[in-house]
Amino acid sequence: MTGDNPSIRRLGDWSADRLADLADDHDTPLYVLDLDRARENYRRMARAFPDAEVHYAAKANTARPVLRALADEGAGVECASAGELRRAIDAGVPGERVQYTAVNPPARDLDRAVEVAGDHPRVTVTAGAADTVERLRERGYDGRLCVRVNPGVGAGHHEKVATGADAKFGVPYDDAASLVESAREDFEVVGIHAHAGSGISGEDLSAHRELVSRMGDLARDLGSRAVDLEFVDIGGGFGVPYRPDEDPLDLDAVAAATREALGEVDATLFVEPGRYLVADAGVLLTRVNTVKEAPGATVVGVGAGMTDLARPAIYDAHHEIRNLTGEREGRPSREVTVAGPVCESSDTFGEHRLSAPERADLLAVGNAGAYGYEMASQYNSRPRPASVVLDGDSARVARRRETMADVTAVEDSE
Ligand code: LLP
User: Fold this and answer.
1) For 106-123, what is each residue's pLDDT tens digit?
2) Of 343, 360, 405, 410, which residue is the catalytic one?
3) 146 is an active site residue
4) What pTM value is reported for the model?
């Protein structure tokens, strides 16, 4: 799709001047998230799946303005924990569009979820194990229940995010129908759910097709047992290109494959994109503090590290980097290794070709809107960075920069 809603915003499309102003105003490391871009991504997804409901997987980015902006567009919200559930409700997302997808939920989470569902009875609780159903029963919950199924097929950009075939997630496929039938006695069973994994690309569509087809079969099986489902939720996992030579996902082709694989079902289709809606809406800004010529490599030390953006360290994920200062000065590009300040060798953003970096240059790290701030930590006693949200021409601090006092706030000072 082209025109005013291109299917990908590349790192090079961001205005260097605007990013430089933001870095000057708010210091670095700094997350920047453009709400207009998240809205565009949502609209493209909603257009590709016109009769489906789009539920944003909040775990990708839970900043309140993001939840609000997407909910205002019509999105529902999928919550992975009681904390996310709380955020969705606090952001004003209507209960009927909120889903709590519990994976081995701690008792405290389940207690809170039942409480929230008591106040907002249209919230749906999704259980991924017979034990979770039993624990909900013990708590007197009798509201809307969805059963998460293990579809037996997984897909993803890394083995660590391919959930579909992992026994941890969902009720074994062959047990799902009987669990739904027995759950009907105590709950309002409204849907079935599955998620193949994260980062489905064009090549992985066969796994997606297989998952959807199994979910269609299960829905029809349940229909034949007189179970009226409101929805069939096929999860998220819609990939985005992290490298400049990768093409964006052909959403219309994914939607067509989904429809065909699902077949006729008397229920609404739900999709749960996280990354797709926010990844290219965000960048991480950081400054160069060290340029070191070492045998075999030029190491460019930057202020942001794996504590700010963990994906390269955890998944060997590639994130494009631009030297905004070097570009402006027209410096020739060179091959460098970009590394963070954490005392650990996995704290690197890998090799990049950048306009020759110099100390104090401003770098932008691309596709940082999804699973960036959310996975940030205080390892090495590093305060987490600030996040600024852009809305049209305005910029607002969604999350202030943490201080050392924040880092030690929960500790006994003796
Ligand atoms: N629905 C469920 C039940 C999920 O578990 C997930 C992601 C999603 C939807 C959204 O998936 P997405 O559309 O964002 O791919 N930290 C990893 C990603 C882990 C995602 C886990 N579940 C990363 O940075 O790549």
Assistant:
1) 999 999 999 999 999 999
2) 343
3) no
4) 0.97
